Amino acid sequence: MDDLYRDYILEHYRHPHNFGIIEAPDARYEGANPLCGDRITMMLGIRDGVVAEVAFTGRGCAISQASASLLTDEIKGKSVDEVAKLTAADVLDLLGIEISPARLKCALLSLDTVSHALEERGNLAAGASADAGAGTAMDAATTAGA
Ligand code: FES
User: Fold this and answer.
1) Which residue owns the Cα nearest ligand 1 atom 4?
2) Which residues are registered as beta bridge partners of 49?
3) Fewer CB atoms inside 10 A, N or C side of the chain?
4) Do residues 73 and 65 touch, judged by C-beta distance below 8 A?
5) Any long-range contacts for 85-92 (C-beta under 8 Å, 24+ apart)?
């Protein structure tokens, strides 16, 4: 792995952007990588169809947490439609390093979680569920890993 890129990833891992809680998010989902148990909770504040606020909590490997940090920067200010169209390739571009097949789930956990959050929001809007997800604060600590 290129040192420059690795530093960039480690910087996002150690000092993640948008790490924290939104008290009353419009969309929220807790995603997990079943292979390792690492978790990310994404919270979105949506105004007029735009992601006005975004925050995440979680813990896991450097790739999963850096990817969440980069992705939250990327989606802030974008329309919900634009965010819904983001692909795995977009997230890998943000990471900017080669991701081995074994680490793909780490890299894509954040995107998967955002997608689920938006889906759940759709369900909520349709009245399918009354549970808007009372914000349970995830363990804010990150673990050393990867
Ligand atoms: Fe668990 Fe990467 S998400 S090892």
Assistant:
1) 61
2) none
3) N
4) no
5) 86/111, 86/114, 91/67
pLDDT at 101 over 50: yes
130 CA to centre of ligand 1 in angstroms = 31
68 HSE (CA, 13 A, CB side): 36
CA distances from 11 to 24, 63, 66, 96 (A): 29, 11, 8, 14
Tell me, using a 6 A CB cutoff, whether residue 31 lines ligand 1: no
Ligand 1 neighbour 142 (Cβ under 6 A): no
Is the CB of 99 within 6 Å of ligand 1?
Answer: no
36 lines ligand 1 (CB under 6 A): yes
Which structural domains are found in the chain, ordered by start?
3-124 (3.90.1010.10)
pLDDT at residue 114 tops 60: yes
